[in-house]
Amino acid sequence: MTVELVRANAHDSDVLFAARVSTLGEQTLEHSQLDGSASEADEKRDRGLINYLMRDRHGSPFEHNSMTFYVRAPIFVFREFMRHRIASYNEESGRYRELGPVFYVPSTERNLVQVGKPGAYDFLPGTAEQIALVQQQTRAAAIHASEAYQRMLEAGVAREVARIVLPLNIYSSMYVTLNARSLMNFLSLRTKREGSLFPSFPQREIEMCAEQMETHFEKLMPFTYAAFNVNGRVAP
Question: What are the domain boundaries of the chain?
Fold first, then answer.
């Protein structure tokens, strides 16, 4: 899974600026909030305010920022992304361009056996035989589908028709733009972490994307990220 931060206008000061207008009215951010020269007392105050907002779920101040990610992943991962109707998505189109023959095959480290009940699954490693079966069958299906796709294109069939034979493990790419509040909602559902107030059981492939997005989030907004974790990884 490939996740790249394309652009960002996201900083802890955006949260503070939005929150303080409630009590101070129109204001200008202090220079220290932007250049990192805030005093220890200022930093403690800022961390405290962000933690208060997170803890008591005053969510709107966390919306005044933006992050855009480039994501390259199998289409079945994108279907899970788009269940989160809290972001803007633009995906490459199989109607307008020929899709490359790049398909996802699970690695030997990918757990294969599902145990437990709905909402509380665990996934365990597969046997050597199961791993070999999954990889062989996945490759065979991808090759067969890709060859069928190419035959139709060569026969003059429109791309939008030829693509219907392609499986969900073909790679696609998209841009995802969202704010910190939306990202925290996504991370709370698509990562499995100790200390989460509401445990989640995501599919591993989308969790791999979420983990990379989380790394960027932590660097961009460290106070917000820390408060998110301290308060059970619940989006405000």
Answer: 2-69+172-230, 102-169
For residue 155, give the 3-state DSSP assignment.
coil
pTM of the shown model = 0.90
Q: Rounded to 10 degrees, what is the CA torsion of 81, 93, 8, 190?
A: 10
At 117 the pLDDT is 81
20 is in an annotated binding site: no
Q: Can 190 be counted among the known catalytic residues?
A: yes
Fold of the domain spanning 2-69+172-230 = Gyrase A; domain 2 (3.30.1360)
- The CA distances from residue 161 to 54, 165, 185, in Å, are 48, 8, 36
Catalytic residue from among 47, 190, 204, 233? 190
Residues of the chain with pLDDT under 70: 22-38
Whether 97 has a binding-site annotation, put simply, is: no
Q: What confidence score (pLDDT) does residue 31 get?
A: 42
Identify the CA nearest to 180 among candidates 114, 101, 236. 236
| Tokens of residue 191, six digits | 């990562």
> Would you say 214 is a known binding-site residue?
no
